[in-house]
Amino acid sequence: MDKQTVNQKELKEAIVKTIAFFDVFDYPPTDLELWKYCPLACGLSDIREVMPLSNMEKKRGFYYLAGRKHIIQTRADRYIATKEKVKRARTVCRLFRFIPFVKMIALANIVGANNLKPEGDIDLFIITAPKRIWLTRFICAGLMQILRLRPRPGKEKNKICLSFYLSRDNLNLKPYMLDDNDIYFKYWLAGLVLLFDQNNTYEELLTANSWLKREFPNWQRFSPSQTVILSIKSSFYQETFDILLAGLESLVKFIQLMILPKNIKSIINQDTRVIMNDQVLRMYVNDRRQYYRELYLKNLEKITHVTHL
Fold it and tell me: Against a cut of 0.90, is the pTM above it?
């Protein structure tokens, strides 16, 4: 990009916003990551030209706020932990791919590359076939229960959290944001790590949420490679499976609603924490998006107070 087209003051402000958010998660980004998540269209050379800003330092290719050098080691530790979690997630995906109603699986809740806490669970975001969302959850959650991979209080490490399902005929995620300034949700979508994709569902998801490109104009979609698990190609298998189980959708929906814990039942469809219908199942009783936003705004205020742009 022509450097003359980039307003230096606006670019510095955009970088500060990016650093402020990543710092909430103890994540020191590289210049490439700053460019990727910068809310202003620019070139990588533009980022390199203005960095580091005052009150920001650089070591081993990572940028961080002054006095926060220790988060470089935090990033390194989480990189190792995330690799192990991805291995387990891929193993689970190999099992789930035999469920023809599963159209896409992504590793979610990653802010920054390979930035999952060692003690945390593994969040999977699943897109299902239309009118099969309850049946998909019933089978997936049931399998994880049998294999003792569902998280429990005090036993979350490397367990499989299945709290967000979306029907393929309802891919617009805007309604599930707190508001237009739901910054965590924007990073959540951009940070999805694709594990399984059937019939270009991931591409459909991005098309339905084209607004993401306006939020991160330099961001590029996850590029499927050999790391994406292949689907079962047999149409006979998929059609037979569907014929045998499709009629159970209403029954398993009734069962699942009946056995829901009281703390979830009490807040169903009251806000964006717990949404349950035939097109989306989102179950986050402890939704921390507002908390993260407040930390981000405090961080931003602190940085801009001492940074001369």
Answer: yes
